[in-house]
Amino acid sequence: MSASLTREDVAKVAALARLRLSDEELDLYTEQLSKVLQHADDMQQLDLTGVAPTAHPFGLINVVREDVVRPSLSQADVLAAAPDAEDGRFAVPRIVGEAP
Amino acid sequence: MALPEGWEMVVGLEVHTELKTATKLFCGCENAFGSEPNSRVCPVCLGLPGSLPVLNERAVELAMAIGIALHCTIAPSTFHRKNYFYPDMPKDYQISQYDLPINARGYLDLPDGSRVTIERAHLEEDTGKTTHLGGSGRIHGADRSLVDYNRSGVPLVEIVSGPDIRTPEQARAYAAELRGILIATGASDGRMEEGSMRIDANVSVRKSGDPFGTRCEIKNLNSLRSLTRAIEYEALRQIDVIEDGGTIRQETRHWDEVAGETSTMRTKEEAEDYRYFLEPDLVELAPEQAWQDRVRDGLGPMPAARRATLAALLSDPQPAQLDAIEVVVDLSLDDYVHAAHEAGADVAIALARAANEIAANIDGRANLTPSAFSHTVLMEQRGELSATQAKTVLGDLLTSGGDPVAIAAARGFEQLSADSLADTVATLIVENPDEWQRYREGDDKLAQFFIGLVMKATRGQANGKAVIAELQQRR
After folding, report:
1. Which end of chain A, C or N, has fewer beta carbons within 10 A?
2. Which of B303, B390, B407 is nearest to B350 (CA)?
3. ipTM
């Protein structure tokens, strides 16, 4: 199997996605994700000479809408769904550092 | 500025510009600056489950307009999700373009004749705005951040230059010329102070002729002044490190405008792994030739062409006049100068009045019609107003509009009659016999001396050219 995935790879991906996995889950996902990569690897073996790359299975292009304003939600409705708010803004735990 | 002997800086700029659309990039919420917080948001730009993005046609056209103005190739492109955890993006990813941007490989020629290549100019969405409350903040010593998502989803184009810039002045010229192009295409209002144009700079240094050094990315450059100061500081910092035997780490640095220095934000090792993948909710964007042509045909002339058109109105453009042309084009005052030219006015006077008097009160433009401007310039040219009086009339027009003739009359700017001017000159000649004698013997500089006396005697109401004519007649 050329597309081998280690337990450490899965742990790293989980950390990037802010997922906390148990040891059992790490084992399970390592096995499952390895099969997914194996499938991709199988497809890489196909001769695709002359086949154009596909960005989307629908085959549609240029799906756009007119630049026309539509009603937004009210501030009250928006903040009603927030765990915490202040001054019309969402309140979140203090962020250390700047945006990426 | 000069770097130590033998050193050279290598700079590339990433310019983010907000697009002047009516709505956001992927939803119909209004794209407006300075509204009540979280009043222009909907399920799409809040990233609520089940909502789906639909691309804004106008944003695509403005992105194409930028690409065309920068001589880029418009290519079939796709959208990707850039994944990261920071509360300024409620979806926890930003929709951007990755390996296939809408515009690729162009260039921008600067007024000094240098060319900066453009690697790409791609579409993406802006983030929300976070406000950090410190431990001593307003709320019971609590540590938290507040988020407003009005800006989340506003369309942006990110324009990435090649590493072609070699001085802070060239970086400034590039940013200024690009800003002019963004305004001319209608893509942006170019207001850096409102954040509608934001710049990051990639800076490295090398000994002349060496390969590129390790670069650092400087964030938070919110004015042309910050841009030049930050680049200069960073290049000197890197040279100091290397000359002391150290090495430059690839890192992101933050510019502190008050302290006038850059500091480490995060190193390459801490760099985010964005796990880009194709945005499954958006299809390929591949503007057909006819659509591209419609955008191209709708574009007016770019700043470089407009400067050339204005310069062509002058028989022998002087450096000061070329500077005035730059100001006029930068502030989009071309119409005033062209109107004055068509009304038969002197272009040099029109340029000076536009680049100084209108520029000094740019918000008053709405009150000043091109025809009132032309009329004022003509009055000055014909000697009905002195230069000082013409400036005052323009100031009044910019403040409250109106008719230049009526304003001149109301201000008592009756031009001195020829007789009265002749009497004044005759008196001054008698009072200053030595200077008059030297002027008669060919010392032309003394004409200025007499003009000064006449202006003083007439409280600025005389016309300089008329005074010279009077002096020469008596010489």
Report:
1. N
2. B390
3. 0.88
